[in-house]
Design goal:
Length: 433
């Protein structure tokens, strides 16, 4: 049985870790499956269509912006081979599992067991994912997902060989702009057990093995919030130190979970930089986001990280529904006060599955042209879409020496467009994260 896994087209350097997990699990559970893999930012439509046409099953992994392109590819593959069974899964499918003619099956939630069931003959239109335990999951198959290609892009951008790792599944926070709290919707009644942690020693072992095989310089984590458990962070750090796995790492952290001791342990374990969702400098807006952070908790976290010798990247979101120009001024002042190593400024995007999405208002949005960087419709009660974009431009110009890669690409600072820089590599870029 021939099976193709396709990661939707979006331009960044990250590997398709979810499909890496699914591929590794399938190889264990359905050994007769012959796997093939394509990633939209490297493989052309022609290569994907041609490569998938001889498959029995083609499965796509999509976020909302990559879904329309996956539908188009699926139509073309079905034209070549009407017998093929097409599946879509991932964040878009989980947020909006409405059946569409392009896909025979939609999978909601985690895909490993569901894909094994599909390959074993489950032909339902909707196959529910099962929450997996890390004990039953092999490490993601990085040769299947051709991880070297992603590492090359990262290297071309900043001369560091980088790969990502997952340390736990699901996020206990429920920020209004994010799909994460959606896990609780997906698995009702299981909210307590929703977050599953890997054994720290297992994460360190995977890092050690992959860093050796792929000659990595830096490890990043796919976890939206890496430090949800103080005990886990401690165990991870001490395990990494004890075993002498001295590669640098870079996680997303939640400001309220940080402490001077945590920053110190992380630094000693090789933490090079942290990313903090600062979001806003307005106490009112921070409260409305529902993340649980305050201006003071963010201030503390940044100060502790700096004192420990860790660089800080801050992500800011412009455009919460009640946001005024005064709130945005507070954000500007706060961004200055924090004096961060790197800044990212995005505009809120009401993705399906988030609390900002309204099926009435946003159903007909052209999602393939819409993301947190280029969004032509979102406005607050007091700030128009045009004004939000002006704020984004103003802030990116102000911090133009210290921007994240995507913001730099928007300003034209990478020299080439986002698409080209992923294709060719752009030596003057920061981390393509
Ligand atoms: C790391 C990350 C990124 C990385 C890239 C990750 C990548 N490999 O492409 C970066 C920072 C570059 C990024 C960019 C973007 N991201 Co992002 N990202 C994440 C984050 C934090 C983790 C994703 C991850 O790697 N998980 C770990 C892997 C192991 O698991 P997984 O991908 O979830 O896969 C599992 C299941 O989803 C499922 N599954 C996945 N694919 C498939 C396919 C099939 C066939 C099946 C059956 C199942 C299945 O099974 C997998 C194994 O259990 C999530 C938030 C979160 N809570 O997870 C947001 C998230 C996925 N991102 C999101 C968005 C919107 C984006 C951007 C559009 C942002 C932007 N620029 O505007 C881009 C688009 C990227 C893309 N490739 O499409 C949204 C998606 C919302 C939606 N409705 O689609 C999320 C949920 C955050 C949010 N705002 O709510 N992102």
């Amino acid at each position: 049985m021939k099976v193709s896994l396709v990661h939707g087209r979006y331009f960044n350097s990250w590997e398709a870790l979810g499909l890496g997990y699914i591929g590794a699990y399938i190889q264990k559970q359905v050994p007769e499956a012959e796997l093939n893999f394509f990633q939209g930012c490297f493989d052309s439509d022609e290569e994907i269509v041609k490569g998938c046409a001889g498959s029995d099953v083609v499965a796509f992994s999509c976020t909302t912006p990559t879904f329309p392109h996956a539908m188009e590819l699926s139509r073309r593959i079905k034209r070549e081979n009407p017998e093929v069974w097409t599946v879509h899964g991932g964040y878009h499918a989980s947020a909006d599992p409405t059946p569409v003619p392009e896909f025979d099956t939609v999978v909601v939630g985690e895909g490993e067991a569901a894909m094994a069931d599909i390959l074993n003959g489950d032909r339902r239109k909707l196959v529910p994912g099962r929450m997996m335990s890390f004990d039953e999951l092999p490490w993601p198959d990085r040769s299947l997902i051709r991880n070297e290609r992603n590492i090359q892009v990262a290297y071309n951008d900043n001369r560091l060989r980088i790969a990502s790792f997952q340390s736990h599944r699901a996020c206990p926070f429920q920020c209004k702009y994010c799909l994460d709290g959606f896990n609780k919707v997906l698995y009702p009644g299981m909210s307590k057990g929703v977050v599953r942690y890997r054994r720290p020693a297992d994460v360190v072992s995977e890092i050690e093995a992959v860093a050796g095989e792929y000659r990595l310089d830096l490890v990043k984590f796919s976890d939206p919030t890496w430090n949800t458990s103080i005990q886990w962070v401690n165990e991870f750090c001490w395990e990494k130190i004890r075993r002498g796995v001295d590669i640098m790492f870079y996680p997303n952290v939640h400001a309220t979970m940080c402490s001077p001791e945590m920053m110190d342990a992380m630094r000693r374990a090789g933490c090079y930089e942290i990313a903090v969702g600062v979001e806003s400098g307005s106490p009112k807006i921070l409260k409305q986001i529902g993340k649980g952070t305050t201006v003071q908790s963010i201030r503390n976290c940044v100060a502790w990280a700096k004192a420990a010798g860790i660089l800080v990247r801050g992500y800011f979101i412009l455009g919460m529904p009640e946001e005024t120009h005064e709130d945005l001024e507070l954000t500007e002042q706060f961004a200055e006060e924090l004096a961060l190593a790197e800044y990212g400024f995005t505009i809120l995007c009401p993705y399906p599955g988030t609390q900002m999405y309204s099926s009435e208002q946003h159903r007909d949005i052209k999602w393939e042209l819409t993301d947190e960087y280029s969004n032509d419709f979102w406005a607050t009660k007091f700030v128009t879409n045009q004004e939000l974009k002006e704020w984004q431009r103003k802030l990116t110009k102000k911090f133009s020496e210290r921007l994240t890669w995507h913001n730099r690409a928007l300003l034209g600072q990478t020299g080439v467009g986002v698409r080209e820089s992923v294709a060719e590599g752009s030596p003057d870029c920061r981390l393509t994260l």
